[in-house]
Fold these 2 entries.
Entry 1:
Amino acid sequence: MTAQPLVDPAPHHDAAAGRRPLRRPRAPWVLGAGVAVSTFVLAVRDPHVQGSYGVCPLLSLTGLLCPACGALRATHDLAHGDLAGAWALNPLWVVLVPLLVAGWGWWAARTARGRSTSAPPAWVAWTLLTAVVLFGVLRNIPALAPALGP
Amino acid sequence: MSTPDQPPPDAPLEPSAPLDPSQPLSASAEPEPREPELREPDPGPVEPDVPLYGTPPPVAPSVPRGPADLVAPPGPAVPAPAAPGGIPAYGTPPPAYGSTPGYGPPPAYGPPAPAAQGGNATWSLVLGLLSVLVCWCGPISLGLGAVAYLVGRSAQRTAGANTGVARAGAVLGLVGAGLSLLWMVVSGRVTGGDA
């Protein structure tokens, strides 16, 4: 009698959890493939060429640098092993890339083993947002632009 | 079910047998006579508790044997306190499960789960904000927006809480991706004309 109510919730729990494993195992590889293809395109088609990937409306209209400015060129440089060139274009991106790659590797490895994964704690997200916004502000300060801007 | 009665519990059950005669058939089902005996010998009570409370978990069948008693105590230790109020004890766990999707009890039972789901919703929101923030940079914003949207949608489905945050993240992701696409199309035409 009493055991049955306990038995029921367990299957539900497993079923609910069982849905994700069917979906999630692909997620790291889909994302990884997308990023790999994008990086390959950036490595082959040089973003240093003016207008090769369009024109940034913010930069061309206002002259302001957004936090991502230089990231495509930095990615191209990183793909070609030019760390100094990438750093000069967008140091924040150069710092983030290894963290993102490591996080992706951890995520993919755990998913491949069938283990559950959860997003990094929320404070990491807020820290990231703060860092990006701060970086975007600082690199628009003339005194700091040479160090932080492309 | 039947197996738990057969194993070691025989010893504790036999003393209970004299008690049973005092009570008719219902005595076998009622835990009351067992409880006092079960508590006095800690290892003994474990098995009877396990079949009743722990049958669902896979551990129970393998554990019941003698050597397992040493390992078993931690598990039964929890049900044991609940045993005195056998009915309330069983009643409580179901609410925990059932309520998890719902409202109140989740904090008690699911501190880890809410945290993770909340984290997903928060990540969706932050990624969506970032995608809008850097929407000028088409490809990066497009990727950020797509991830923010997917994370937000999955958080909306799984999380009972933070649905609003997850939805906001998904919407922001769409907005960021849409703006980046718009800029890419516009700038593509501009540069196409220039080139």
Note: Residues 1-22 of chain A have pLDDT under 50 and may be disordered.
Entry 2:
Amino acid sequence: MNEIKKQINRIDIPNNITMRSKAGISKARNGILFNKKKWPIYIIPLAIALLLLTIYIPNNLMHQPTTQYIEGDYAIDVFNRNEVVGFADNVFIGKVTKKLQTINLRYPETQFSVEVKSNIKGNLSGEITVNQQAGYEDERLFIYEGDKLLEEGESYMFATRFMEGEGWHTAIPIGGDVPIKNEKEEKELIKNYTNSFKNEIPFKGN
Amino acid sequence: MDYLEVNIIKHLVEKAKNGNESAFLEIFMHYQEDIYRMAFLYLNNSNDALDVVQDTAYQSFKAIKYLKEASYVKTWLIKIAINCSLNVLRKRKKVLPLRVEYEELGSEKLRFEDFTDLSLTLKELIEILDEGEKTIIFLRFYQDLTIREVAEILNIPLGSVKTILYRALKKLRENMKGDEDYERDQEANQSY
């Protein structure tokens, strides 16, 4: 055994390691957003904030939908366009024509019918189903921080992964569902994503 | 991994992708100690390293459905664990530590064979090396990955991996030499 391995093996493994692994998995399943270790830091300000909200906020505002961020990192850096394109099966411009349904997995996910306008990576055509890892559960919107729920009638630069079992294309959050407001933005995005396709960083887990 | 192990892991990954928690836990438990040790190297703190284990379990279970090739599950988990550890460091230092600059080996040609007699301590590994160096040392010498595999996981050029690896080993050797010089001076002082 090399000396480095020998030294690293000297790091003792705590007894509760499996318990922590289970906690992580369970948290992913249940969508529990609190870090158990740190909850006492948050709970008092949160309780005070809730109390103030109850006292001061008018009733109609209390019924506004709330946003709950899906916690944590994605398997890639979703802000790095080259990684997003490398991770995606398809990169294309599409227009959302209709919201189809919201299903509840670990978090709500919403499917949209999307009309493909042009391709940068892959070769899609016609109407396809794009799945977004975001959606409403009751009045609460679950979404990755920095991402926006797709809207009917709007166009986007999509970077998606094809989920064969479901038959839909799941959009990569943030870097894989960029809204296009006008022609200028569209041209700019086409230029940037085409360039990223040339310099894509393939995902090792593929 | 032998043939049987590959098939077992493949089977478990398929079950995990369908939401089977027990299957995922079984896979994860297989690698949790490696993840903990790697996180400890970065963070030098048991509680933070355990947080990384928990966060890696959380992130990976959420993303397991995107893993297309089961045989990559180990490197995939390690990559997620590296990101989780760096996130903790980023919060601590408010900087992004592992942005490996493109470096080339200079005129100084170092051979790995020069370092086979290296003797070091865990404390030195933790304190002397920076995050990028620890990552590469861990992947190369603890996970026994080739330099090419390390470069692929970290998405950095092969030449950079070599440079950082040699720089890390050289740092450890120089530190060892410093310790020896110090001990020799101490012995000399005592003899006067």
Note: Confidence is low (pLDDT under 50) at residues 94-116 of chain B.
